[in-house]
Every structure is written in C-alpha cells, then in structure tokens.
TrEMBL record:
<dbReference type="Pfam" id="PF14019">
    <property type="entry name" value="DUF4235"/>
</dbReference>
<keyword id="KW-0472">Membrane</keyword>
<keyword id="KW-0812">Transmembrane</keyword>
<feature type="transmembrane region" description="Helical">
    <location>
        <begin position="12"/>
        <end position="35"/>
    </location>
</feature>
<dbReference type="InterPro" id="IPR025329">
    <property type="entry name" value="DUF4235"/>
</dbReference>
<protein>
    <submittedName>
        <fullName>DUF4235 domain-containing protein</fullName>
    </submittedName>
</protein>
<feature type="transmembrane region" description="Helical">
    <location>
        <begin position="55"/>
        <end position="73"/>
    </location>
</feature>
<keyword id="KW-1133">Transmembrane helix</keyword>
Length: 94
C-alpha cells in the first residue's frame, strides 16, 4: 500500500479538505484568541508593537491548532473516502 500512488479523486478531495480545514481552523482559533485575550489576533506578529509574549503565544496557538485540525480532518476524510471506495468496489463486483 505504501507503493501505491493516491488516485486523482483523493488528491482533489484532500486538497479541498485541506483548504477548507485551514480556513475554518484559522477562523476558530482567531475566535478563541479574542475570547481568551480580549484582543484581536496580531496581524503581524513580527511587528515591534506586538509584545514578544503575545507573538509567541499566537504562534504556538496557530501552529498547534492548525496541525491538530489538519490531522483530525485529514484522517477522518481519508477513512470516509476509503469506506466509500470499498462500497463502490463491492458494488462493481456484483
């Protein structure tokens, strides 16, 4: 299975799922940031106007949050896709 290339359908689905996940996770994490800190997320964490602690906190939240969201959603989507493919394959064999 490691030698198999993913089929085109999964590449397209995986790409779209990745884009949607990134967008939703960014919005959700921004909401969490506002509720937690009471401030809008920093637009430019490299700016000297943003404190070092705030910049690092935001980077950690976004890095960990985005990674976790991508892993969970990609694994779920892959399981659903494989299940759908199995059903489709079984239907062909009938």
């Amino acid at each position: 299975m490691a030698d198999e290339k993913p089929d085109l359908a999964w590449r397209v689905i995986g790409g779209l799922v990745g884009l949607a996940t990134a967008w939703v996770a960014r919005k959700a994490l921004g909401f969490v940031w506002v509720k937690t800190t009471g401030k809008e997320p920093p637009v430019d964490p490299d700016s000297p106007e943003v404190s070092l602690g705030e910049a690092i906190g935001y980077a950690v939240l976004m890095g960990v949050g985005m990674s976790v969201a991508q892993i969970v959603v990609n694994r779920t989507a892959k399981k659903r896709y494989e299940a759908w493919r199995s059903v489709k394959q079984a239907a062909r064999e009938l």
